[in-house]
């Protein structure tokens, strides 16, 4: 969700097409809050690279990741003015027409380079709790998780499947080689900001004791991930994560 109005009538969301090299934003307005009475508008922007992932990092701000034909990996911040709803009145006495429009876009390039270990972005999501804006990124070639600080342009390696790269505070997580395609971010009453990487399959795993989910969390909510676990389905359930009441908020990327 890129934008949601406080009265729950106006929304905007993003989508991308890798092969068409395009990113779309769709705005919807529910007339009088009635979900059966909807007007919408879609706007598309072509990119000079192949988009590989998008994620809302704050209201009206989207991180767009991609791969240039020349090989560079790209990270951009797209900042939008809020979508608008208006009513157009006809002079001929026709019923008023509800119109929704998509805001204007400003693009900031965060990263544009061809570096081993950062060849392509598989997933990204916001990192909450820090004083500066930060983005959690998993790269496709190395399967490593890194945090990018928007204010300083600095990368911090958070987790890696390669034991030789797991030095200092970097977590060694062999499960990263499973190439998870989804990230869920939760605010938890006990564990603080939580980041789950999994395939989100509805079918239970064949082995309930085999690790299938990565769980990283920032318990003191200071924007630094201090803990990481590889969880089986049984461990996930035992920690109470199957109970929605434990979570204060959640997002899917």
Report a brief summary of the structure.
The protein has 253 residues and is mainly β.
**Count of distinct strands:** 20
Beginning-to-end CA distance, first to last residue: 10 Å
Residue-averaged pLDDT, rounded?
Answer: 90
Share of helical residues:
under 10%
Low-confidence stretches: none
The SS-based structural class is mainly beta
Helix count equals 1
User: What strand order characterises the main sheet?
Assistant: 11-12-13-14-15
Radius of gyration: 20 Å
- What is the 3D form? globular
The percentage of residues in β strands lies in over 45%
Largest sheet entry: 5 strands, mixed
Following the backbone from N to C, one meets helices and strands in this order, namely EEEEEEEEEEEEEEEEEEEHE
Topology:
Layout lengths: L2 E2 L5 E8 L4 E9 L7 E9 L3 E9 L2 E7 L5 E8 L3 E5 L8 E5 L3 E9 L7 E7 L6 E6 L5 E5 L4 E7 L10 E2 L9 E7 L3 E7 L12 E8 L8 E6 H6 L8 E6 L1
Characterization of the model:
- The protein is mainly β and 253 residues long.
- The protein has a domain at 1-114.
- The chain is 2% helix and 52% strand.
- The chain is built from 1 helix and 20 strands.
- The chain has one helix at residues 233-238; strands at residues 3-4, 10-17, 22-30, 38-46, 50-58, 61-67, 73-80, 84-88, 97-101, 105-113, 121-127, 134-139, 145-149, 154-160, 171-172, 182-188, 192-198, 211-218, 227-232, 247-252.
- The strands form 5 sheets. The protein has a 5-stranded mixed sheet with strand order 11-12-13-14-15, with no helix packed on it. Strands 19-18-17-16-20 form a 5-stranded antiparallel sheet.
- It is globular.
- The model has no long low-confidence stretch (mean pLDDT 90).
């Amino acid at each position: 969700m890129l934008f949601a109005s406080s009265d729950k009538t106006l929304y905007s969301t993003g989508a991308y097409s890798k092969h068409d090299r395009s990113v779309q934003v769709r705005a919807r307005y529910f007339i009088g809050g009635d979900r059966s009475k909807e007007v919408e508008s879609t706007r598309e922007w072509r990119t000079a690279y192949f988009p590989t992932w998008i994620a809302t990092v704050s209201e009206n701000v989207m991180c767009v990741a991609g791969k240039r034909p020349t090989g560079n990996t790209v990270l951009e911040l797209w900042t939008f003015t809020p979508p608008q709803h208006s009513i157009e009145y006809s002079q001929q006495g026709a019923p008023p027409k509800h119109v929704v429009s998509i805001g204007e876009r400003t693009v900031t390039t965060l990263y544009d380079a061809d570096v081993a270990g950062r060849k392509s972005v598989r997933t990204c999501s916001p990192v909450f709790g820090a004083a500066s804006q930060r983005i959690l990124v998993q790269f496709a070639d190395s399967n490593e998780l890194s945090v990018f600080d928007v204010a300083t342009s600095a990368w911090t390696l958070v987790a890696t499947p390669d034991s030789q790269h797991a030095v200092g505070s970097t977590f060694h997580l062999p499960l990263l080689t499973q190439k998870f395609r989804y990230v869920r971010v939760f605010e938890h009453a006990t564990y603080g900001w939580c980041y789950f990487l999994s395939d989100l399959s509805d079918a239970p795993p064949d082995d309930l004791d085999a690790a299938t989910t990565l769980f990283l969390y920032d318990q003191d909510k200071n924007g630094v991930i201090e803990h990481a676990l590889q969880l089986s389905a049984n461990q996930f359930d035992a920690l109470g994560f199957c109970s929605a009441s434990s979570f204060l908020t959640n997002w899917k990327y």
